[in-house]
Design goal:
Blueprint: E1 2-7, H1 22-30, E2 40-43, E3 47-49, H2 55-62, E4 71-73, H3 85-88, E5 103-107, H4 109-118, H5 122-125, E6 127-131, E7 138-141, E8 144-150, E9 161-167, E10 170-175, H6 183-189, E11 194-200, H7 215-227, E12 231-240, H8 250-257, E13 263-264, E14 270-272
Parallel strand pairs: 3-4, 4-5, 5-6, 10-11, 11-12, 12-13
Antiparallel strand pairs: 1-2, 1-14, 2-3, 7-8, 8-9, 9-10
Bound molecules: zinc ion (3 copies).
């Protein structure tokens, strides 16, 4: 099964539409991996994680057929991860959705509230909402289980989630949009056996861990996971969800992370599970 990184940016994307910073100027000039759309992932053709401002662009760039999408998982309700107009256009009269196409939407309470008000009426759209709770577990389909973790990424009263997804080919952590984990989450991490771990690196190489993280904290997180035995031998640890405000280009991030044995995600990165 293919795990595809659809996007690898934080909220503003890179280059930021109105931004004149060095990272954004480099992206405009160099293109390629310096260009980042908002973070999201595909697991095979039937499971997608997050559907933000760049969802339409992702379907075009990667040739995605979302009539085959069965499960849409949301980490949290921020706009770079949850953008609802294209979901609402599943509605009859706007869209010819195959008769047997049902979309299961998974997320926290804030995501469910937005689904109820913005992706409505769910019956007409053939959407089935499912509430995810940190510490719980849910089966998506045979062989695929999701275990949400409490992230350190609160805004107002929202509980953002990181997602551990077990697949027949291995276990993946979608660990973006978090600062350094709270101790309650570390207690759960201790029981994990990960094969792929995406970790939030919004701040690039900056030493910061409030709501997001930079390199020193990504390394600390990886090291503690290793000490707890949560990383299977050969586990790939991949930094993701980068902001231009972190001040580092893709090339600079690769150079900074290489000595730590940590990979740097980019739009279009493919991993075989
Ligand atoms: Zn984000
Ligand atoms: Zn910029
Ligand atoms: Zn967020």
């Amino acid at each position: 099964m293919r795990l595809l990184v659809l996007g690898s940016a934080a909220a503003e994307a890179i280059p930021g539409v109105f931004c004149r910073c060095r990272v954004c100027d480099t992206a405009r000039r160099e293109g390629g991996r310096e260009i980042r759309s908002r973070t999201a992932y595909m697991l095979g053709d039937e499971i997608r994680i997050d559907f933000g401002h760049d969802a339409f662009w992702h379907t075009v760039r990667y040739g995605l057929d979302h009539t085959r999408l069965k499960h849409l998982l949301f980490t949290h309700s921020h706009g770079d991860h949850m953008d609802t107009p294209d979901l609402w256009y599943r509605k009859p009269g706007f869209c010819q959705v195959p008769d047997d196409a049902v979309l299961h939407i998974w997320g926290n309470e804030h995501v469910m509230r937005r689904v109820e008000s913005e992706v409505a009426p769910i019956d007409a759209l053939r959407v089935i909402p499912h509430r995810l709770r940190a510490g719980g577990a849910a089966e998506l389909m045979p062989g695929f289980q999701v275990m949400p973790l409490e992230a350190s990424h609160a805004s107002e009263d929202e509980q953002a989630l990181n997602l551990v997804i077990q697949t027949p080919g291995g276990t993946v952590l979608i660990g973006n949009d978090t600062g350094y984990y709270p101790e309650s989450t570390w207690a759960r991490v201790a029981s994990l056996k990960l094969d792929i771990a995406f970790i939030d690196s919004t701040y690039g190489t900056v030493d910061s861990c409030g709501g997001h993280m930079g390199l020193p904290w990504v390394v600390k997180t990886r090291d503690r996971m290793a000490k707890l035995g949560a990383l299977n031998p050969g586990c790939r640890v991949i930094a993701n969800h980068f902001s231009h405000n972190g001040g580092a280009t893709h090339a600079e991030l690769v150079e900074a992370y290489a000595p730590h044995g940590i990979e740097v995600a980019y739009d279009g990165m493919e991993i075989e599970l």
